[in-house]
Design a protein that fits this description.
six-stranded antiparallel beta sheet, four-stranded antiparallel beta sheet, metal ion binding, 118 residues, RmlC_Cupin_sf, Cupin type-2 domain-containing protein, metal-binding, RmlC-like_jellyroll, mainly beta
Length: 118
């Protein structure tokens, strides 16, 4: 499969999980292209001052890899600033939130995979 950037679908998510402003999600893969392994593989873009509100992951886990900008992340109560090259992972049963505290768009790779019970 090959997809050109101009053909990647973009979702607009206002006040995502109770957050501020509108998050743009560039879907690298659609859920049906993940072969049952997860529900998100994309680039999330949060404008300055915007955020995704605190939420808990049930049945899945999420990883962020920061590409551009400055983030304030709440990782299960651990508050930390992240920048390009940093990552955070929210495990199943834990909670997180992310806020753009910079003056440019915050861009990060977001991957949500389903938890596997062994």
């Amino acid at each position: 499969m090959i997809k050109k950037a101009k053909d990647l679908p973009i979702d607009l998510e206002p006040n995502l999980k109770g957050g501020k402003d509108t998050v743009r999600i560039v879907n690298i893969l659609q859920k049906n292209e993940m072969y049952g392994t997860g529900r998100l593989f994309g680039v999330s873009i949060i404008p300055p001052g915007g955020s995704i509100g605190q939420h808990t992951h049930v049945g899945d886990f999420e990883t962020y890899y920061i590409l551009k900008g400055k983030a304030l992340v709440n990782d299960n109560g651990n508050i930390c600033e992240l920048g390009p090259g940093d990552m955070t992972q929210c495990k199943e049963g834990d909670f997180h939130s992310i806020e753009n505290i910079g003056d440019v768009d915050l861009e990060y790779l977001a991957v949500i995979l389903y938890s596997v019970k062994e």
